[in-house]
Write a structure and sequence with these properties.
The complex is a heterodimer.
Chain A: E1 4-7, E2 10-23, H1 62-74, E3 82-83, E4 86-89, E5 99-102, E6 112-117, E7 123-135, E8 139-141, E9 150-152, E10 159-165, H2 171-189, E11 201-210, E12 220-225, H3 228-247, E13 255-260, E14 265-271, E15 281-282, E16 289-290, H4 293-301, H5 307-318, H6 322-329, H7 332-342, H8 347-364, H9 376-387, H10 393-406, H11 410-417, H12 425-438, H13 440-447, H14 454-464, H15 471-482
Parallel strand pairs in A: 12-13
Antiparallel strand pairs in A: 1-2, 2-10, 2-11, 3-16, 4-5, 4-15, 6-7, 7-10, 8-9, 11-12, 13-14
Chain B: H1 9-18, H2 23-36, E1 43-46, H3 48-63, E2 74-78, H4 105-112, E3 116-121, H5 161-168, E4 174-179, H6 185-191, E5 194-197, E6 217-222, H7 225-235, E7 265-269, H8 279-294, E8 298-302, H9 310-325, H10 343-354, H11 357-369, H12 376-396, E9 402-406, H13 422-426, H14 433-437, E10 442-449, E11 455-462, H15 467-481
Parallel strand pairs in B: 2-3, 2-4, 7-8, 7-9
Antiparallel strand pairs in B: 1-3, 4-6, 5-6, 5-10, 9-11, 10-11
Helix pairs in contact in B: 2-3, 5-6, 9-11, 9-12
Classes of the chains: A alpha+beta, B alpha/beta.
């Protein structure tokens, strides 16, 4: 994927900033005690506060504040000791108060930064501008009745974190890497489930183009981009659109555009002139939010190891490649699984087995690591069997396939099927002698210089031992016999 | 025996305790009085059946020895307090027919202490007004008459006009009010009764229809200072459902009424001597100063230099908050909906028909001052001036224990007066608004009559959380003023 666009007038750089809305993992809503659980019959998770009944007042949910601080710490960001909730005023039926309680001038989290991983093991730093807490709106349902719309307030008032990036992202690949990395961090922190299909994570993408070295161009905000793939597609489309306009002598209108995943295009939603005046002002129903450093420190102590830390530890202490480490830390459960397998065993072998065999097979079966039929302990057991020469790598693959279907322990399968590797050199020598005796022509050809025939002899030996002979021993003995002068 | 409706709350509690009469008899006497005073239009909804039911339960509790602090006392509740199962309108067409499924914290506390509700009292629409002439449910008439123009119907003041008129006319023994810029103190003064707005945060705002959240505060009306103290004690206290309610212990305010203010210093703010103030009010204020001296306290002149900006500041901040607070009345979930073919028109028609002119005026002012390009010049500037006004008071309280001022710049005026000019109407609150902006407790006590035989009030303003001093000084003024006049 191009990070720049080659236009008729030369190269264009794509400049991207993202606003990610992440639903906070919390039992209750941001300002009411109603359940924040996903789903439920319409309008069953609604308190008087969420429905904006007269005289109702918001009360801040401490858990949501803790989650925002946790996330801020995970984004290496400044936690603001003093922040303010503000009202963003606009009318819509799924916004019962007629305003959204958000944060405007003083967000709870300030500047931070994260690293994103690019192709070829490259790493790039992306700045975080801020993170603020705000209420989600309800849901308008327009397709149940030809003339009426329905409103479901279950989501009304649920806590969202809006994470705003600096315009440090260049091109669709980086944007995808950024979104994936943010999602990974949030999942590690357990502050957002990162489930884009259910809408618990959504992205607005600000896109502009410029000639390298020039000041930023006019940007368009693209909304409704609800998957990593859609982010890439929307950027590709929108950047080309902007370059075409500019190269044809036009100018970009600052506007909000909507991504249409069916038509694979962005289209104008509202211009700058039509932009809402949200009349932000501090919410007089809520006191300024003051956080004690000691409270922040206590949250800091409970932070899990974050993806980048884990990755570096995997490289340093297990001797893994950056790529393998990256694959293993992509999910916290996956990394935990790997560590269970690798504990006290050959870590590189463990990484190979997890990445190449297990993940491959899980993927093919549409399963996640959490529902793997092969437990980490069992996979570890298999690796021990390989390491102590009980079975060969080749036999191990058969055993693994059996483990995946039956869920049985590897030792049991090996015993049951008599797959134990033959390391008895005396017995292997007998078979080797037999093979040499049965193939005098090939022996002569080999000795005449046809080195490639060595593999044939190995194959014959393995065939006669049903693959159970220790490959290294077979090699040794064969070489000794075939290469001997007599 | 004195007529039951003329008793003070304190006397009624004693009479109930002695068994001179029952709560039911007390309630019935007030219900009869309400029937005869429909012309005042003090109530939007009367709840005699509920009151009698509550009275019977109250009599049982008292008989069982479980009497609460306000056991059996019939009250009027301003129709801005949401009451479970009883229509709550904020005097607006847009909430006509709205029946809350919840009870405001303040009314819940009063009922828990044994009080009964006789009805929901009339007010200016969404508490926006100083004359109770903006109610969708009609004007409230002040029970007092101008002796020079006896045919004229006078305003009770506002916004809590129904509560003040009902207390003054002996229809209820006390009433709740809310005060955003003077909505308790000014009607108390106009109706010749006492009323207190406590410190912002003293009473929970939960369940009170919001006008301007940073200013709204519940308070009380009664015919004596002590009765106010009894009511306020019941209503006050921290509420976890209101983030702006304070975690402060609630004193037994009545205990502060010792009558002893010797050694105290009362500040007289010089900026409150405004141009065009009637000489009678000036004289009454001077009389108040003399009473203070007579009681053994001294007075000093203090300066509150930013007073002249208070009204302008208030009329930026209060409408700004109101414009946002009233956005929820959109016809979607409850109250009035004027259906139309599309969403925008439904909003427009619902709000055009649902809100009265004064409410619309303030929504427009508030929307304007919060708009991009005007926000800094109006809203931010007003917040800064508000801080200066707070500082003025804090500096004054370095030198004195409380302030004494007139409550309002005039006595009650005729319905229809001041209507053509909103600014003139807003000037009614010139003495009450500064304390509201500073969140301070303020109380109005009736102190005398003007030449037209209309009551005039004096206001005592105290330090934050020092309602006790306010009550103490008010009690002294009350006893020296010997204000025993009642409306005809």
């Amino acid at each position: 994927m191009a990070q720049t666009i080659q236009g008729n007038t030369g190269e264009w750089e794509i400049v991207i900033g993202m606003e990610i809305h992440a639903q906070v993992v919390s039992e209750a809503k941001l300002f009411s005690g109603a359940s924040a659980a996903f789903g439920g019959e319409p309008n069953t998770h609604v308190s008087f506060v969420d429905a904006a009944m007269p005289g109702m007042l918001p009360v801040l949910n401490e858990k949501c504040v803790e989650q925002a601080v946790r996330t801020g710490l995970g984004l290496n960001a400044q936690i603001n000791h003093n922040s303010i909730f503000a009202r963003k005023n606009y009318f819509y039926p799924d916004l019962p108060q007629g305003y959204q309680i958000s944060q405007y001038e003083k967000p709870i989290v300030g500047k931070g930064k994260i690293e994103i991983d690019l192709a070829g093991g490259q790493v790039k730093e992306i700045g975080i501008t801020r993170l603020h807490l705000e209420q989600d709106a309800g849901k308008s349902v327009h397709d149940l009745h030809p003339k009426k719309s329905y409103v479901d307030l279950n989501r009304s008032g649920c806590a969202l974190m809006e994470i705003v990036s600096e315009p440090d992202i260049r091109g669709p690949e980086e944007a995808a890497a950024y979104l994936s990395k943010i999602r990974m961090i949030l999942r590690y922190l357990e502050t957002c489930d990162g489930n884009m299909e259910e809408g618990s994570m959504r992205a607005d993408v600000n896109i502009s183009v410029r000639k390298p070295g020039q000041p930023y161009g006019t940007r368009c905000e693209v909304k409704n981009v609800n998957s990593v793939k859609a982010v890439q597609q929307a950027i590709e489309y929108e950047a080309v659109r902007q370059v075409e306009i500019l190269e044809n002598g036009g100018s970009i209108d600052q506007e909000t555009r909507l991504w249409d995943p069916a038509k694979m295009e962005t289209r104008s939603m509202r211009s700058k002139e039509e932009a809402h005046d949200y009349r932000y002002f501090p919410d007089p129903d809520l006191l300024p939010l003051n956080l004690e450093q000691s409270w922040i420190d206590r949250i800091k102590e409970t932070l899990p190891e974050l993806p980048d830390q884990k990755k570096h530890r995997f490289i340093d202490s297990y001797g893994l490649s950056a790529y393998d480490a990256g694959v293993l830390i992509a999910e916290r459960e996956r990394a935990n699984y790997f560590e269970t397998v690798a504990k006290g065993r050959d870590a590189k072998l463990a990484a190979n087995w997890v990445i190449n065999e297990l993940l491959g097979l899980l993927n093919k079966n549409g399963k996640g690591i959490a529902d793997s039929p092969v437990t980490a302990d069992n996979l570890g057991g298999l690796i021990e069997l390989i390491s102590d020469d009980t079975i060969s790598g080749k036999i191990a693959k058969d055993v693994f396939a059996e483990m995946f279907t039956s869920g049985k322990a590897p030792g049991a399968i090996v015993e049951e099927k008599g797959l134990r590797q033959v390391t008895d050199t005396g017995m292997i020598e007998q078979v080797v002698d037999q093979v040499i005796a049965e193939n005098p022509d090939n022996v002569a050809a080999y000795k005449g210089g046809k080195d490639k025939l060595f593999g044939f002899f190995v194959g014959q030996v393995m065939k006669k031992t049903q693959g159970k002979a220790n490959p290294a021993a077979v090699n040794d003995i064969l070489r000794k016999k075939l290469d001997s002068k007599e | 025996m004195t007529e039951l409706t003329a008793l003070t709350i304190k006397a009624a509690l004693a009479g109930l305790e002695k068994g001179d009469f029952t709560s039911r008899e007390l309630a019935k006497a007030h219900i009869d009085a309400m029937d005869k005073a429909k012309n005042l239009n003090a109530f939007i909804v009367e709840t005699p059946d509920l009151a009698l039911k509550q009275a019977d339960e109250s009599d049982k509790r008292r008989a069982a020895g479980n009497a609460g602090l306000l056991e059996g006392i019939p009250l009027g509740i301003k129709d801005l307090f949401c009451t479970n199962g009883v229509q709550t309108t904020a005097a607006s067409h847009i909430l006509e027919g709205f029946i809350p499924q919840y009870e405001s914290t303040v009314t819940a506390k009063l009922f828990a202490d044994g009080a009964l509700m006789l009805g929901k009292t009339n007010l200016d629409e969404f508490a926006m007004g100083s004359s109770n002439t903006t109610s969708y449910f009609g004007n409230v008439t002040n029970p007092w008459k101008n002796k020079n123009k006896p045919e004229a119907q006078l305003v009770p003041g506002g916004s809590s006009g129904g509560s003040a008129a009902a207390v003054a006319a002996n229809l209820v023994m006390g009433a709740t009010g809310t005060d955003t810029g003077g909505s308790i103190r000014q009607p108390a003064a106009f109706c010749g009764i006492s009323g207190i707005k406590p410190t912002y945060g003293r009473c929970s705002r939960w369940g009170i229809v919001a006008f301007a959240s940073s200013l709204d505060q519940a308070g009380t009306f009664a015919r004596t200072v002590e009765d106010n103290a009894l009511l306020l004690r019941s209503m006050s206290g921290h509420d976890p459902k209101d983030s702006t309610s304070a975690k402060k212990d609630v004193p037994d305010f009545a205990k502060a009424l010792t009558g002893d203010i010797r050694g105290m210093t009362i500040g007289i703010p010089k900026e409150y001597r405004v141009d065009g103030m009637p000489a009678e009010i000036e004289r009454l204020w001077q009389q108040g100063i003399e009473w203070i001296h007579a009681a053994g306290a001294k007075t000093i002149e203090v300066s509150l230099p930013h007073t002249k900006y208070a009204l302008a500041t208030y009329y930026v901040i209060a409408p700004a908050e109101a414009s946002s607070n009233l956005a929820r009345y959109d016809g979607v979930r409850y109250g009035l909906r004027v259906p139309s073919d599309n969403l925008r028109e439904t909003y427009e028609k619902t709000r055009a028909q649902g809100f009265g002119d004064e409410v619309k005026r303030r929504i427009m002012i508030g929307t304007y001052v919060l708009s991009a390009g005007y926000y800094d010049a109006y809203y931010i500037k007003a917040q800064k001036v508000r801080r200066l006004i707070v500082n003025d008071f804090m500096s004054a309280f370095d030198k004195c224990d409380a302030l004494l001022t007139p409550t309002a710049p005039s006595a009650a005026f005729a319905i229809g007066e001041n209507e053509e000019d909103p600014i003139k109407m807003y000037l009614n609150d010139v003495f009450t608004v500064p304390a509201s902006l500073a969140g301070l407790p303020g109380m109005s006590v009736p102190a005398g009559l003007d030449a037209a035989s209309l009551p005039l009030g004096l206001q005592i303003i105290g330090r934050p959380w020092d309602e006790e001093t306010v009550f103490k000084v008010a009690g002294v003024i009350e006893s020296l003023a010997q204000f025993t006049h009642r409306p005809a």
